[in-house]
Amino acid sequence: MSYQVNKSDAEWRAELDPEEFRVLRQAGTEAPFVGEYTDTKTAGSYRCRACQAELFRSDTKFDSHCGWPSFYAPLAEDRVEYVEDRSFGSVRTEVRCATCGSHLGHVFEGEGYGIPTDQRYCINSISMTLVADEGPEDAPRRA
């Protein structure tokens, strides 16, 4: 697959710390309930930590109690790509950044969360950077 951002492993290793590289570039998974954004309620956009492409908005984030930040939809369907994952003896759907191909997490189908879709995107915190929205106190003032 060809991506808009295409770098060698050496280039990615120079930009990412070892744990970021393991998760983003080698499809690793961070431990549940320890990620930076698992319980975050801050309004803003979640971007790919590798390339800064905007992937998810905080208004689609919900608490699924799965141990990873969960979203019910990406910002737009063209922001992510889906890959069949047959690792660990099961079939899952891997979610990758469509801009750089970095591993983000997995998406699962299922109801019962009281959300608008039946999609549960369980995304590694280490795969994302949260860019907070400007609050009213930070908004530009009109003269």
Automatic annotation (TrEMBL):
Catalyzed reactions: L-methionyl-[protein] + [thioredoxin]-disulfide + H2O = L-methionyl-(R)-S-oxide-[protein] + [thioredoxin]-dithiol
PROSITE patterns for the chain: MSRB (PS51790)
Any GO molecular function: metal ion binding
Enzyme class: oxidoreductase
GO biological process: protein repair; response to oxidative stress
Keyword Zinc: yes
GO cellular component: cytoplasm
Domain MsrB, first and last residues per copy: 9-133
Keyword Oxidoreductase: yes
UniProt name for this protein: peptide-methionine (R)-S-oxide reductase
Organism: Nocardioides scoriae
